[in-house]
Design brief:
Structural class of chain A: alpha+beta
Oligomer: heterodimer
Order of helices and strands of chain B: HEEHEEHEEEHEEHEEEHEHHEEEEEE
Distance between the termini of chain B: 44 Å
CATH superfamily of chain A: RNA polymerase II/Efflux pump adaptor protein, barrel-sandwich hybrid domain
Radius of gyration of chain A: 13 Å
Shape of chain A: globular
Order of helices and strands of chain A: EEEHEEEEEHHEH
Number of helices of chain B: 8
Largest interface: A-B, 14 and 16 residues
CATH topology of chain A: OB fold (Dihydrolipoamide Acetyltransferase, E2P)
Number of domains of chain A: 1
Strand content of chain A: 35-45%
CATH class of chain A: Mainly Beta
Number of helices of chain A: 4
């Protein structure tokens, strides 16, 4: 598992990367009440704002961590946004993307580095 | 920047795991570990304890209660003379042009008027009252008392365990009660839409009383986050957001707070700042009005979202002044201003969210029925 400074986690299986947000991020957001996901098939570039998350406190975005194509989104989050607080590292994944060039993954943090990052 | 102040309950907030944020010059808990949603629901189903000690408590005294009431009527458009002993009323301070300078509560406590104002405005409010009322009426800002609010359907049962008389109070009654050996100035009121009490106690006794109340199974501490979602569901204004110096009482849908006796044709018509602007608007109707809004779908629309009459084209016709997710409503809710011809219940307007115009329906306020004990 890799982590971004935007508090996303990235899990790689072959050329497929699953993206979610960390427990720390979910806790900071507070109760999530709304999630807007991209359409599967969308081509995205790194740092595009592709997911909207609204909590009781505020709105925030998830940025595309890599260039690629969205191949699957977690529709369960649209119906049950609270999953993000209940199981951020499991059931509450946001999307899976197909990535041809995985080399930027090397720039992201491993778990130890992320733990240090959030202090 | 001036240093942030702390209320007498600060240490208790920290001990309870409160997440502390700056608010109106104070370090206040925005939420506790339970979180805003759970705290909101707890208040609507059991009883929530809020620290509102940052708000301003002011005492007005004069030669007689009538003299004080008469003097206060020169500052607010409310019927103060007609407010019976042991009763409280909602009020507004207005500018010379009728804009709202602050909203407040004032209570007839026999030999004095007890005024509670917003934290962010308390310095200016006190100065304004001193300038207008002294020396005939003394204006004393109370710095040595805390203010707690106990709100929710179990509030009465809880407070009755401390003072049985609490049960006999009606909505907006005020009384001095002894709670856990502490002299408390209690009003049956609050700002959540729930039945409940606001409790003024000496600062050095506040934490002890708060702990006694929290020891009750039905009582949980509630932060500012849930306070905001509760008052929004209750359709109540947040000063500086839903009402400010640019809004007149009529357009703020607060005409109800101005009693007949102070209106055009009333026995004590006018005689308060901004009367020339405020009173005609109550007769002729305002050009724009604060309304309740229900965004369709699940996306919250927050303060600042612009409202349009049509899905495409045209300039904005209004703006959301408070908005978010209503945990009890279980959906997005908002308040905002719209032109009078778009204020009818059920009217569809469009809020622009992330470049898209999404339908919003004008809805009745409050969003959640108030459960005051009248």
């Amino acid at each position: 598992m890799k982590y971004t400074e935007e508090h996303e986690w990235l899990l790689t299986e072959g050329e497929l990367v699953t993206v979610g947000i960390t427990e720390h991020a979910a806790e900071q957001l507070g109760d999530v009440v709304f999630v807007e996901l991209p359409e599967p098939g969308t081509e995205v570039s790194k740092d595009d704002e592709i997911v909207v998350i609204e909590s009781v406190k505020a709105a925030s975005d998830i940025l595309a961590p890599l260039d690629g194509e969205i191949v699957e989104v977690n529709e369960a989050l649209v119906k049950t946004p609270g999953l993000v607080n209940e199981d951020p590292l499991g059931d509450a994944w946001f999307f899976k993307m197909k990535v041809s060039d995985l080399s930027p993954m090397d720039d992201y943090m491993d778990e130890a580095a992320y733990k240090k990052f959030i202090g | 920047m001036t240093e942030l102040r702390r209320t007498p309950l600060y240490d208790l907030h920290v001990e309870l795991g409160g997440k502390i944020v700056p608010f109106a010059g104070y370090e206040m808990p925005v939420q506790y570990p339970a979180g805003i949603m759970a705290e909101h629901i707890h208040t609507r189903t059991k009883a929530g304890l809020f620290d509102v000690s940052h708000m301003g408590q002011v005492i007005l005294r004069g030669d007689s209660p009538e003299a004080v009431a008469r003097a206060f009527e020169t500052l607010v458009p409310m019927d103060v003379l007609g407010l019976g002993e042991g009763r409280q009323r909602y009020g507004l301070f207005l500018s010379e042009t009728g804009g709202i300078l602050d909203d407040l509560m004032f209570a007839n406590r026999g030999d004095h008027l007890f005024v509670v104002v917003n934290a962010a405005c308390k310095g200016e409010d006190t100065a304004r009252m001193k300038a207008a009322l002294e020396p005939e009426v003394s204006v004393t800002a109370i710095e040595d008392r805390a203010l707690l609010a106990l709100q929710g359907p179990r509030a009465e049962a809880v407070l009755t365990e401390f003072a049985p008389e609490a049960a006999t109070m009606r909505f907006m009654d005020v009384r001095t009660l002894e709670l856990d050996g502490v002299e408390a100035w209690v009003s049956r009121s609050g700002y959540t839409g729930e039945d409940g009490y606001e409790i003024s106690v000496p600062a050095d006794q506040a934490a002890r009383l708060a702990r006694s109340l929290l020891a009750h199974d039905d009582v949980a501490p509630i932060g500012l986050g849930a306070r905001d979602s509760l008052r929004l569901e209750a359709g109540l204004c947040l000063y500086g957001h839903d009402i400010d110096t640019e809004t007149l009482p009529g357009e703020a849908s607060l005409a109800w707070s101005i009693q007949k006796v102070r209106r055009s044709g009333g026995a004590r018509e006018g005689g308060f700042p901004g009367a020339a602007q405020v009173l005609p608007q109550l007769v002729n109707g305002p050009a724009r009005k604060r309304v309740g809004l229900r965004p369709e779908g699940r996306a919250p629309m927050r303060e600042g979202v612009e409202l349009f009459a049509d899905q495409e084209g045209g300039a904005p016709v209004g703006r959301i002044t408070s908005g978010g997710f209503g945990p009890t409503v279980s959906g997005p809710i908002a308040m905002g201003y719209l032109p009078a011809d778009l204020c009818a219940l059920g009217t569809t307007v469009y809020g622009e969210l992330r470049g898209k115009r999404l339908p919003v329906t004008v809805a009745a306020l409050p969003f959640v029925r108030a459960s005051f004990k009248r």
